Amino acid sequence: MSGIFGIVSKKNCASNLLYGTDYHSHMGTEYGGMAVLGKKFYRGIHNISKSQFKSRFFDEYKEMDGNFGIGVISDRDAQPLIIGSKFGTFAIVSAGLVENTSELAGELLAQGETFGEMSSGGINSVELIAKLINQGRTLIDGIEGLYDKISGSASILLMKEDGIYAARDRLGRTPLVVGERDGDYAIATETCSFLNLGFRIVKYLEPGEIIHIGKDGLEEKLQGNQTNQICSFLWIYTGYPASSYEGISVELVRERCGRLLARNDNVQADLVAGVPDSGVGHAIGYAMESGLPYRRPLVKYTPGYGRSYTPPAQEIRDLVATMKLLPVKEVIAGNRIVLCEDSIVRGTQLKKYTLKKLWEAGAKEIHVRPACPPLMFPCKFALSTRSLDELVARHAIRALEGFDKEDVSEYLDDRSDKYEKMVEWIGHMLDATTLRYLRINDMVEAIGLPRGKLCLHCWLGE
What we know:
By secondary structure, this protein is an alpha+beta fold. It folds into two domains: 3-228, 4-Layer Sandwich (Glutamine Phosphoribosylpyrophosphate, subunit 1, domain 1), CATH 3.60.20; 251-460, Rossmann fold. The chain is 32% helix and 25% strand. It has 17 helices and 25 strands. Helix 8 (250-263) runs antiparallel to helix 16. The longest helix has 14 residues, at 250-263. The chain is globular and about 65 Å long.
């Protein structure tokens, strides 16, 4: 998904920018970048696929000096970019996914535009965003016009000599939150980035809202709208437990998911566990509701390994999944385990590198409980699942039907026989004793927003 962080400070902001950006490291694994504006622009971009963000910038940030700064942890494009434009020189970062990048870039190329930034052999979507903004009569008009042209989502931070302009995606798929500390301001994807830096939340941007933060404080440039469809997966998996979106705590939502899983379960077990790290909150909620003890049959070797889902290459995902989880045989052997997981995408990591370790350590039974429904559609708004073939639920439907079925509505109904057969097939493939997913209505209840204000596309295709 990517995570972005910006700061406007009365003093040199480079140190706060380093740590504020670093608190988004769970959001991407490809590139990390920082730009600071003082007497000049300072910028650094590094590949972080094989090293941590802080280690790549720890010496470099000390050479940056300025009151304004923006940073990014990117899941795809190298950023921030520094652009010369009719609005002056600016630096820009973005979080989201522009699905029609190729089509829009083709139109601009036909008009005589050129692209200087290429990512993985293709157009850098952040440069595309900058060029689209530059077509506006004013900077605000350009940002507003951007959302008329793109398919997908983009929340942006744009930094120039008068401060930072921030725009949240028009449908609110990705969040932006403002914090304040003694007259300094920060704006971020993740509110957890504020806590140890001393910022307090003062504003959640509305979908489509544009603000400017400069030396005179915060000013609204374009009013937001109420058409919010924020990504539900932020609470289930993507977000950090100490963060909140729309004022709703990630950790508490995960606990409520676990409680609702337990409330609709009748399995007999000896202990509850979560797949580290994102399954832990769900498992704690399950334990609180069921009365079963929460224990740790699997522990994550945190110092060396990050998230195994975010790397783009399957071989890297497999390596991280293999190495990061360590089984505790003394907790596992002979026990019936309820294993809470945030979700099941491909199912390969869960089967080969999690359940296999539990079985080999002597587990008696393993009851898998994902904290969301089966993922049925690729994400159109962030770089997560990109094709139907990645989804184990679609593999199950193909096996049951004998072909790739376009209309899967019968499989979306968690009361239908076809849904039950699909779940049974997935459970058998995983080598789980039982498998039971959280129902869509329970997930919505756990999040606590009206259903119409949540993006549920990954589960319902709507």
